[in-house]
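Sample intake sheet
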Amino acid sequence: MKRSIYVALLLSLSLPAIAQAQSSAEREILTLVHEQRLAANAHDTDRFLATYLHASTLVFVIDGRVIRGFDSLREQ
């Protein structure tokens, strides 16, 4: 019984922080997506790619094609 009370208390204290973190992450992602859409509509490749990881470990998949590395993606 005590354990259930502690778990309930912990959850009640944690949920607002979790919700706030989630909404913060959502805002960051939506900001990036919005920037990508603006860049794509402007046909600005460099601006669009600025939101991607600039590393050789980047893997980009489009239409069944796999492009590995930022430099390879930039060349496309």
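Comment: The chain has one domain: 2-75. The chain has a mean pLDDT of 82.
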